Amino acid sequence: MRILLVGHTGTIGQIVCRGLLNSQDEIITASRTSGDYRIDITKPKIISSLFEKVGKVDSIVVTTGVVDMSVLSELTPEKNSVSLENKVAGQTNIALIGQHYLMPGGSITLTTGVIHDEFIKGGVSASMANGAITSFVEAASYELEDGKRINAVSAYPLKNSWGNYAPYFRGFLPVDSDFVYAQYEKSIYGIMTGHIFKAYH
Predict the structure, then answer these.
(1) Band (53; pLDDT cuts 50, 70, 90)
(2) What's the chain's average pLDDT?
(3) Is the dihedral of CA 180, 58, 94, 187 positive or negative?
(4) Could you tell me which of 177, 178, 180, 181 has the C-alpha nearest to residue 159?
């Protein structure tokens, strides 16, 4: 398989990249600053250019997307647009453009987050973005052709980065990296479509 991983440098992306590199598949990486290719997910023309260079793939995995974490009283339209333009439009545009470079039976995996299901202070914009991606995945799964699949993984704070997130996620229990990677593995290599794999217990 040829797998394109967009966002391999982030916390989740590094876990997915390590896992995939242990497979026998060809892994192609892309991010803003490093990897096989450079990409700015807020620019559809750059996304199109990336796929023109990469060509046909069997799987597209996106583990990147910036959101604003302002509390509601400080959340402005400008701050909220960061979540809309980066995580929502960035991920969905990769799927929209990437579907035409996906081999029959191939898969697309996007990334949402736990605060679509359980809310935290300062998470309004992020919850909105995660909800949008969830709905996109569920609806798009009915229209993809040639046996192509689309899913998302709902990510969760990890044990190895818990210190950065603990103040936001009081009462939550961080999860192991292996458990998170397993959810991406299900999406990439499995048969399900339109599903949100929850990377938390």
Answers:
(1) very high
(2) 96
(3) negative
(4) 177
* Average pLDDT rounded to a whole number, residues 122-133: 97
- What three-state secondary structure class fits 183? helix
Q: Name the domain count of the chain.
A: 1
Tokens of residue 125, six digits: 């914009």
* pLDDT above 90: percentage of residues in the chain: 90
CB 199 within 8 A of CB 155: yes
CA distances from 149 to 3, 44, 129 (A): 14, 22, 21
Domain containing 129 equals 2-198
Confidence of residue 29 (pLDDT cuts 50, 70, 90): very high
Instruction: Please report, for the domain that includes residue 191, its CATH number.
Output: 3.40.50.720
Contact 121, 71 (CB under 8 A): yes
